Amino acid sequence: MKGIGVLSTPYALSEGGWVCLMLLFVMASVSCYTMFLLKRCMDTNPRIHSYSDFGKFAFCRRGWMTTSVVLYLGCYLLATEFMILEGDNLAKLFPGFEISKPMLEGRKAFVIVSAIAIFPTVWLRGLGPLAYIAVAGDLTPILLLSAILWLAFFDGIVFHQGRKFANLKGMPTAASIYATCFSAHATFPLVYSTMKDRKKSSSMLVISFATVAVICGAMALSGYLMFGDQVKAQITLNLPPKNISSAIAIYASIATPFAKYALVVTPIVIAIEEATPLCKHRPMSLLIRTLLVVSTVIVALTFPFFGYLLALIGSSISCTVSLLLPCLFYLKITNGLKGFRAEVVLISGILGMGLCIAVSGTYISMKRIVQSL
Questions:
Q1: What's the whole-number mean pLDDT along residues 159-185?
Q2: Structure confidence by residue, pLDDT tens digits, 64-114
Q3: What value does the CA radius of gyration of the chain take, rounded to a whole number of Å?
Q4: Residue 204: how many CA atoms within 13 Å on its side-chain side?
Q5: Is the dihedral of CA 223, 224, 229, 233 positive or negative?
Q6: Residue 99: beta bridge partners?
Q7: How far apart are CA 35 and CA 124, in angstroms?
Q8: Which candidate, 254, 260, 230, places its Cα nearest to that of 241?
Q9: Confidence of residue 319 (pLDDT cuts 50, 70, 90)
Q10: H-helix segments, 158-277
């Protein structure tokens, strides 16, 4: 989720204040450590090949079911965020656009248009071509950061430096958004199981998390320095669309969801088809895929709050997948309680921190969403 998470790192900094820049690197370090815990679990049990397998071997069928539901819910909410992102950014680029029948203003109209454009990708059985585009889309954070730095040093953007040093009320939201930037744990089993030289996995993890942390930190720092407390939940909404470097970054952020949407919802479709054999027939499969897109459009139009929804995803899903579950899996699969006391204390601390972020972040996000309706 780091692709859309990095869009909101300046907003996260504005929520929690400058001290939250340190929190970002704490989240990166802790998430990297919990990824190592998953690696140890896979070394202990070679039969683990997917994230849901951790739940299966740790807590039997109930663990597998719970883990799968969390992952599918995360995919669904992420697909909804894609719709909101498309509507917001297209409306910024084309402010006068609207649909007359029925009467829909810019943002809502673009959510509908985006869904129509996405339909063919969701109906595809083979997603190979989209996968290449989605991988290219991972370069979007670098394009965004480059555009912001270009604006800062060469285009004379007036700085509106944020004045908050610390805001305790905003820290759960900041931590929740940061969690979305480092929640790649669900994909780790597939990557690790296909590695030819697993001895290099440790250095790969450290380099990967360090790189993401530097990009997110630079984005948060530069964005908050430039736009201060006026920074929006999507940094692209603060960029001047008529500027060439900004336009490239905005268009890149718009193009990425078109490729990634189908990849994100496909696991949900496959799960439904496997649970109900009737849905494997082509007409029923198309119907399921269509209804799935329509439902995300409805949710995106009903709850068009990108920042609040992203914080909700971070606290309820990302925090669970990247902090809480890896610790529980490790303690159960490897009998970690028999290990070093220092590590047990560390894992207990991570569980406590994760639980605090999950509970407080979810509560604050839900409260803000309800108040904004």
A1: 84
A2: 999 999 999 999 999 999 999 999 988 888 877 666 666 667 788 889 988
A3: 21
A4: 12
A5: positive
A6: 104
A7: 33
A8: 254
A9: very high
A10: 171-181, 188-193, 201-227, 244-275
Here the tokens at position 311 are: 């914080």
Q: Are 11 and 240 in contact (CB under 8 A)?
A: no
Helix axes 51-93, 106-123, angle to 10 degrees: 140
| DSSP-assigned letters across all residues of 193-222 | HT-S-GGGHHHHHHHHHHHHHHHHHHHHHH
Contact at 8 Å (CB) between 141 and 219?
A: yes
| 178 token code pair | 């940061």
User: What DSSP string runs through 100-139?
Assistant: TTTTB-HHHHHHHHHHHHHHHHHH-S--HHHHHHHHHHTT
In contact, 253 and 236? CB cutoff 8 Å: yes
What is the rounded CA–CA span in Å between residue 74 and residue 184? 12
Q: Which two tokens stand for residue 135?
A: 């991988």
Helix (H, G, I), strand (E, B) or coil at 99: strand
Looking at residue 137, what is its pLDDT? 60
Q: Which residues contact 336 (CB under 8 A, 6 or more apart)?
A: 330, 343, 344, 347
At 370 the pLDDT is 93
Q: Which residue has the tokens 């692709």?
A: 3
State the pLDDT at residue 9.
Answer: 92
Going from the C-alpha of 202 to that of each of 35, 36, 208, 333, the distances in angstroms are 10, 8, 10, 20
CB 306 within 8 A of CB 77: no
Cα separation of 209 and 182, whole Å? 7
pLDDT at 154 over 60: yes
